[in-house]
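Read as amino acids, tokens; as here:

___
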Amino acid sequence: MSKQAEHFWIIGIKPVVEKIDEEGFFPEDEIYLARKQERLTGLLRKAEKGKVKIHRVSFKQLSEIIGQKNHQGIALLRKNKPALLSLSQEDLISYTNKPKLFLAFDGITDTGNVGALARSAVSFEASGFIIPRKKTASLSAGVWRSSAGAIGKIPVMFIPGLAGFMHRQNENLLFVGTSTQGKNPRVFFAEAKQEKRNIVLVLGSEQKGISPLVQKRCKEMLAIPTSGQVESLNVSVAGAILMYEYFTSFYG
């Protein structure tokens, strides 16, 4: 388990705008500006709202600061970005006297839900997040804010795709999904004590749930008992309930 720290320059109009659209501003970001604002009004409005320091310099000064001339009059200094803990393969499969619980995301795009899941994961002893690089919310400034910093306490593994990962790890890990029809979570966690494998809880997208291929590769589907008066629970609420059931089964 290791920290992934970042401190680097992002240079040019398109790279800076795309990076901020993707991740937002972090508290210690700094903008160096050596051009008129016409094409950057939206970006600078976000910077001012986020209380990001803006340095207004000449083209020559900016070239000297970043060590190159091809910068289009703007550069973003991203320093001391909050670091993530890295989840390794060894962390994933090592088993002691009780199973670890990991969360895998299948198309969760809402940063508020990811942040809420991070807070619950820290509270209920989940051991890490498994996050596909595509079709899933990036761990942006919005996630850091909505998690109140909890995302920095959760080891993270980034993977190319979830279905392929499940196929490769099928012998090592016990994959379970969520559905409106399935096994009672309390019963499942009681039975899981006999498996001697770590558990991966797969949580699906807010709109579509778990994709068919991913669901096919889950050993069990878990259904949270409810009154039935609503069709489904928000993914962060469902995730929190299932993590609580895990916690009470193995730590309570």
Remarks:
- The longest helix spans residues 235-250.
- Residues 87-250 form a domain with the Alpha/beta knot fold (CATH 3.40.1280.10).
- The chain has a mean pLDDT of 91.
